[in-house]
Amino acid sequence: MGFDGKLAIQTSIKLDGGLFLHLFKYKLHLITNICPQKIQSVDLVDGQWGTVGSVITCNFTKDGEKKFVKVIIEAVDEEWRGITYKVIEGDLLVAYNTFKLTLSVDSNRELDNVVTWTIEYEKKNESVPEPSTFLDFCFSATQEIERHYMLIPN
């Protein structure tokens, strides 16, 4: 019996959806300037930004703890405007056998764009909590990015 799960969160942003997605595909390293309390470093280890198979490392702080992950870009889809990162190394794999994070942006709205963060995971055992706080982390980062680009005060 597995401990697979899937969680998602959506939020509307006024920021151009293409710009938001572009940041996560091609300019992810800039997020350290936008959310320095959350994300301390993002480095391209292998490949090219926004390309399937590329490897990226990230040092971040979540719930007051320093964390490290190495991810591979597993999918980039222009049609559904999304990108999937699969964790291949790091702190998240202590509790989870697999951990994937997908970002998609629906820009087919009149006023707002809808950002969806989805986590697919397999817990190592039943006592491991669902990674809902990681979704909260993504939601909060989304808000910070929007404030940064839209110059909205906190």
From TrEMBL:
Biological processes, Gene Ontology terms: defense response
Domain Bet v I/Major latex protein: from-to ranges: 2-152
Pfam families: Bet_v_1
SUPFAM superfamilies (alphabetical): Bet v1-like (SSF55961)
Coiled-coil stretches: none
Xref: Gene3D superfamilies: 3.30.530.20
Listed name of the protein: Kirola
Taxonomic source organism: Sesamum radiatum
Phylogenetic placement of the source organism: Eukaryota, Viridiplantae, Streptophyta, Embryophyta, Tracheophyta
